[in-house]
Amino acid sequence: MIEPAELGLLDGFERALINDRLHLVYQPKISLSDGTLKRVEALVRWEDPDLGTVPPSRFVPLAERHGLIDEMTRWGMDTAFRQWKSWHDHGLECELAFNISALSLRALAFPDLVSDYCERYGMPPSCLVLELTESATQPLVTLMDTLTRFRIKGIGLAIDDFGTGYSSLMQLRQLPFSELKIDQFFVADACYNKDSRAIVESIIDLAHKLDLSATAEGVESQEQLQLMKDLGCDIAQGYRIARPLEGEKLADWNKIWSK
Ligand code: C2E
Ligand code: CA
Ligand code: CA
Ligand code: CA
Fold this sequence. Notes:
It holds the Pfam family EAL. The chain is α/β, with parallel strands linked by helices. About 45% of the residues lie in helices and about 20% in strands. The mean pLDDT is about 95.
């Protein structure tokens, strides 16, 4: 049984997906060693004429529940890769990070589909990082084969929201990740709370000992940015650096940022 409210949302989402009314914005990530643009993360947006702005935290789980997530993922990859090619053609070099629902990874053919996008848009696989979060219904450890295929192709895999939810040390031990993203809760708290700071410090240390790079997300202040740098974190992302931007605004942002 689908509740009426959910049905309305689902109906609207399906129409937005079919009519190409979803939209991607892109948030820059910088290298903390030299402050330069390293990568951008594609984030999906849905502004519905009737429902208004619906946050991804509402419609992504909805798409997962109702079998629409694969279609959204394909739409998003095609859109993001096309945008990346446009930046590349204009001499703006950066990597692309893309969020993938664990559910989309169940298909063993998915890594080949991703390779096809890389070929179509001329993106070296080393320029792509897939960001994964575990879900209750699809633990990442069940996806070992698919994840290994990505790594063999040279595509990066980041564990998102590390330190919260279902993410566990066992996953780090068993799965072929290349990067760890520290959840923004700890990043926000680290400047004010010595326990959070100790946790962030330990996560960065752990990442490096496992040959993973560490990204801090949700960096909102200069103080947080400096702390992440001091703690040896590799990459930072957050409002202090940039809000998620329209694709065509990235070059302008980069000009101002790199001044
Ligand atoms: P996430 O992957 O952890 O993305 C980071 C979220 O933090 C984004 O929210 C981003 O806009 C927000 N954020 C970035 N910097 C800051 C900051 O400095 N302060 C604060 N308070 N927030 C910041 P958003 O765009 O609402 O996305 C929420 C979640 O929805 C994402 O969390 C991700 O799990 C999911 N999502 C977004 N786009 C996609 C997509 O294309 N596919 C899939 N499967 N999931 C997506
Ligand atoms: Ca993410
Ligand atoms: Ca995250
Ligand atoms: Ca999140």
